[in-house]
Write a structure and sequence with these properties.
Number of helices: 7
Structural class: alpha+beta
Number of strands: 4
Helix content: 40-55%
Shape: globular
Order of helices and strands: EHEEHEHHHHH
Largest sheet: 4 strands, antiparallel
Strand content: 15-25%
Strand order of the largest sheet: 2-3-1-4
Distance between the termini: 13 Å
């Protein structure tokens, strides 16, 4: 996992998993609470483009907001993940580290990767066998990006990367067929 500091104005794939591959989300309320903490701590310092929460790991695509001090950015992520870990430890009578390491981050620098990283994040539940069709997975931004309901996600920016809503759906559907072949494992994202 990368230890680079998050820079204002940059896009990042943010990810982490449970210590020893342990589940970090044990029941529905855990997913909802994590998203609530994300909204409280992370949204003030970044814009979220998409996400997926799986039982033992998570993925987000964010862009760090401009004019946010570096220290505030790192503190926001620390506060979010520490608050969640403390809550899980308290609720499930466990001790020790919930997450494997400090969260991973990979800067996304090439425009051509935006669509692929979004697809990669959304298709993760199918890739790991949590669902047969990632488009219906409950703890992903896929359906939120297609809906007209209010959201904090940068819906318009995401859909514009694909041309429009139809392009977004078509890109996901076309590439869903490649999942069984292990294609995503070869992507350098």
């Amino acid at each position: 996992m990368h230890k680079d500091k998050l820079q204002a104005g940059q896009f990042y794939h943010i990810y982490n998993r449970g210590n020893n591959k342990e589940n970090i989300f044990k029941e529905q309320q855990n997913y909802l609470y994590f998203l609530q903490l994300w909204r409280h701590h992370i949204e003030p310092v970044s814009h979220t483009h998409c996400y997926c929460l799986l039982p033992n790991h998570f993925h987000f695509l964010i862009v760090v907001k401009e004019d946010v001090p570096e220290k505030k950015i790192s503190q926001a992520f620390s506060n979010c993940f520490n608050a969640y870990a403390k809550s899980i430890n308290r609720s499930y009578n466990r001790t020790g580290s919930l997450f494997q390491e400090r969260f991973g981050r990979k800067e996304i620098q090439r425009d051509g990767y935006y669509g692929w990283i979004i697809f990669y994040i959304h298709s993760n539940p199918q890739k790991h066998g949590f669902t047969k069709d990632f488009r219906i997975y409950k703890y992903s931004s896929y359906q939120s990006l297609l809906s007209n309901s209010p959201t904090l996600l940068k819906r318009n920016a995401v859909l514009e990367w694909f041309g429009n809503k139809e392009g977004f759906v078509k890109f996901h559907e076309m590439n869903q067929k490649t999942l069984p072949s292990g294609y995503l494992d070869t992507l350098e994202i």
